[in-house]
Amino acid sequence: MIVLGIESSCDETGVALYDSDAGLLGHLLHSQVDLHGPYGGVVPELASRDHVRKLIPLVDALLSKSGLQRADIDAVAYTRGPGLVGALLVGAAAGSSLAWALDVPVVGVHHMEGHLLAPMLDTERPDFPVVALLVSGGHTQLVEVQGVGRYRMLGESVDDAAGEAFDKTAKMLGLPYPGGPELAKLAQVGDPERFRFPRPMTDRPGLDFSFSGLKTFALNTWKGAEVQDEQLKADICRAFEDAVIDTLAIKCRRALKETGIGDLVLAGGVSANKRLRERMRQELQKLGGRAWYPQPQFCTDNGAMIAYAGCQRLLAGAGESGEFKVRARWPMEQLEAV
Ligand code: KG4
Ligand code: ZN
Predict the structure, then answer these.
(1) Which end of the chain has fewer beta carbons closer than 10 Å to its terminal beta carbon, N or C?
(2) How many A from CA of 12 to the centre of ligand 2?
(3) What is the number of other CB atoms lying within 10 angstroms of the CB of residue 171?
(4) What is the per-residue pLDDT across 240-274, written as a single tens digit (0 to 9) for each?
(5) Cβ(268) to ligand 1 under 6 A?
(6) d(CA 60, CA 69)
(7) Which long-range contacts (CB under 8 A, 24 or more apart) does 94-102 make?
(8) Is the C-beta atom of 138 inside 6 A of ligand 1?
């Protein structure tokens, strides 16, 4: 079965073709970074309009690159939520219309389930159960995963998501949008010994996160310094990144201990962070388990993860007829088990 996957929940238009037998046939991504850059963040209305302009040409380009026709598509999967409602509606409307025109099944996919399953795009894959740490621009979640659709929320962010904290701190330091990767780049030349930021909520039991205080800590460190130069900026980036990574690692260790599960899946945009990946690899090695993460290109938003997740649900008999609803907010625990 060849599934066309469509991702349009935020500021990337992603499309992919996933074959249930042969694996990923191809994928394409159009990033809206240049469009939103001048505003320092995503402008929802501009995002929706750009998805409208780019989505169908991107599907056609992917088909021709893969040597396929529209008639070769056996099913369509689109991101139903969570995300920006206008942006989601573009993918939902285009995906559903295409499916109806081709008379093939269509399914709406949970964006975070897409992220969670992205490591499955590789040939070497984790076995369930796993603990998943999902770290994106909108979410920070620790999830016990017993199988596809069998999710138990162990903890989540009570304020800013990890990616959001990266982006806001970067913006405050005058780094260009999107801030996460820029902050990580600057942290490479930062002095790890100069500042020590707090590890929020690690001094009490529980698996929830709070990252908004780190941003304020970074701001106060910046404002409180006598000389505000590039080295100070890099040192703050390093201290911030260390604090986020350390906090995530502490909570992951706790979650693995509490559940008795051996392996960890790290996914979502922030899982592209090299130092976070390396830290989790080392932590899991010490614990006798293994850390799994997607290829860097499938950490941030993409169509391949939606095609894969949709394919698993379609194979299990999921599908919609006639009507679609997008979900700006959508708890992952409400999903049906596959
Ligand atoms: O999963 P994603 O592409 O979109 C959402 O679902 O939100 O995640 C985007 C987030 C942004 O906050 C971005 O700054 C962050 O992931 N990000 C990073 C890195 N690459 C992307 N954060 C830290 N280090 C990176 N290398
Ligand atoms: Zn995402």
Answers:
(1) N
(2) 9
(3) 18
(4) 999 999 999 999 999 999 999 999 999 999 999 99
(5) yes
(6) 8
(7) 94/6, 94/55, 94/56, 94/59, 95/4, 95/6, 96/320, 96/324, 98/4, 98/59, 98/70, 98/73, 99/75, 102/70, 102/71, 102/73, 102/76
(8) yes
